[in-house]
Amino acid sequence: MFYKLIVCMFIVGFALPGNAQNKGKKFTLEDFNLTYTFRTQGVSGLRSLNDGEHYTVLEDKGKKLVMYSYKTGKAVSTLLDLNDPKYKAVQTIQDYEFSPEEDRILICTNINPIYRRSFTADYFVFDFKNKELKPLSEGGSQRLATFSPTGTKVAFVRDNNIFIADLRFGSEIQITFDGKFNEIINGAPDWVYEEEFGFNKAFEWAPDGSALAFIKFDESAVKTYHMNMFRGQYPAYEQNALYPSNYSYKYPKAGEANSIVSVHVYDIKDRVTTPMNIGEEADIYIPRIKWTKDPKRLAIMKLNRFQNQLEILLANARVGSTTVLYREENKYYIAESNLDNLIFMEDGQHFIMSSEKSGYSHLYLYAMSGKEIQPITSGKYDVVDFYGYDPVKKLYYYASHEESPLEKYIYSIDLKGKKKKLTPTKGWNEAEFSKSFKYYINIVSNADMPHVYTLYAANGKAVRTLEDNAALKTKLADYNVAKKEFIQIPAADGTTMLNAWLMKPVNFDASKAYPLLIIQYSGPNSQQVSNSWGMDWTQYLAQEGYIVACIDPRGTAARGEEFRKCTYMQLGKIESDDMIAAAKWLAGQSYIDAQKVGIWGWSFGGFMSSLCLMKGNDVFSTAIAVAPVTHWGFYDSIYTERFMRRPQDNPSGYNDNSPINWVKHLKGNLLLCHGTADDNVHVQNTYELSEALVQANKQFDMQIYTNRNHSIYGGYTRLQLYTKFVNYLNQHLK
């Protein structure tokens, strides 16, 4: 789901209160795209410890691991200090994991990214008893290193095979041997699973450490996508100075062959691997595996290719036989976000699952027989996060949009429906609970307030503030910060109201007419209009005399299933209709110059901006499309087919709203930007649209970024890119 990568780039302009007088300092594009002057501070590497009374954080740029008391908020001890010369093998802790008994930690360093979530790294084990720091393995960098429940073993992936290191004896065994690049992957997902089912690790330890379950991906039949890699400069690949190299990887496009997946369980004692029975149909997905509380029973999630039928299979891990524990069908599709809320309760008799069967996403309690006991939450709002269950207080903890689609709050609830709101500050709330649920850290922001991290006791009493970003607020006091106004705009159907925000120039004069830039993402179940903090280049635009608007059309999140799934089988149609209608409504306001209306978007948003310029050529005069999908046949199978089914099932859905098929309607100014090494939305999309524009004899502008991926960054790349945006807008809208 590619919007997750982009959302950090264009959460926009959420501002502190300010007035229109000149405060002296001006925003620059360097502030947002080079020096990151207004970046918020947070709490790094927070982990709750087993006793529920302490937590750890990373300090000193990842060189120190420090333990704090929840009760007092004070540092108790420094557990590891890499400034000690005897630990010089590790320069910084980039991630870490405690063993179950907390007598060791697994340190991750020297991370080398592969795709969005995947990476190789060097792992080290620190033993608290003897204060020794040792590499996990001498055989090369590893992936996904994970302690066993006993803490004596660590499983990891290397070169598409699974290994298990025994920390007691310093030994290492390999348990799969058929792993091969672009053919077989054991214990880690292929590209499309990683991207669209949102996970990286495809193995799980049994709860007693007696077995390791894993998914095998056979991608032999998946077609290969090729990308040229040039020399470039940041970094420079000197070996490609004269002849580019070719990076090839397996990427299943819509309607094409996927990996064949299978599930296996390796018995630690017997050293035998047993396949689990997932049925005869091969063209399926296994998006999750999860052990129950019984080390002999493994839960396997199984989706059909259309992703509208979900089964949870309960497997006998010893022999591989399975029965169906849970089954659900949806007239549209099963949302990927619901897959993560499967929780097996400590009593071994119940499990929790989320579903949209009521029309909204809610939590349900089931018996291990598969029988529904009761809904845990209900109402005309979506539950979006499930934090867990406290068996002592018999409370469930979750986050929802109950009060407003623009805001998120954290709640506790019992099975009688008694509910308590745990987050008092208005805005967008996240939470980190202690393992005992006696404490929680609330992370909250809103349009007028950067992120604040506050430690609370379970009764809702604040213990202390961990970070309030006071320094950032002081810094921003010297600037004219544009205020964001939340409004609603009529959708194309004339009855639905769309959530939006509007940012006016800091010295706004209602008697003048200003150029308008609409920024948007618009993808399924995404959300850009929310009462949360953000600070980016749109502040610069407001300073320079632009009105900026952001709109969530139909198909976006936080307003129930029918609202977000109404775009099913026709991605782009309703969303572009809504965006065009909203642009016309805004252009009708006296303070907006109707002749100078532009639209900007990245990824799905680039698809939308290019399509809207052509479909809405009577309102939009300029569009910037960054890394756009230009025909859904070019994009991956899981994401695209979830919303569109296959091209052979739905040809009109794919063709009718492809920008490639609208080029003859182009009248305004179009800027296309793309990275040549985009493994997600391939540069093929931009190249094919540009060819269609050429053959339609349409003029347009295009900027290509050498060796850049979907995020288009590195060195001065981001600054050059946003300078290009501003110059283009100044040329055509001002």
Automatic annotation (TrEMBL):
Residues 1-20 form the signal peptide. PROSITE patterns: PRO_ENDOPEP_SER. One of its GO terms (molecular function) is serine-type endopeptidase activity. Residues 99-450 form the Dipeptidylpeptidase IV N-terminal domain. The keyword Cytoplasm does not apply. It is an enzyme of class 3 (hydrolase). One of its GO terms (biological process) is proteolysis. Keywords: Glycoprotein, Hydrolase, Protease, Signal. PANTHER family: DIPEPTIDYL PEPTIDASE 9, PROTEASE FAMILY S9B,C DIPEPTIDYL-PEPTIDASE IV-RELATED. This is Dipeptidyl-peptidase-4. It comes from Butyricimonas faecihominis.
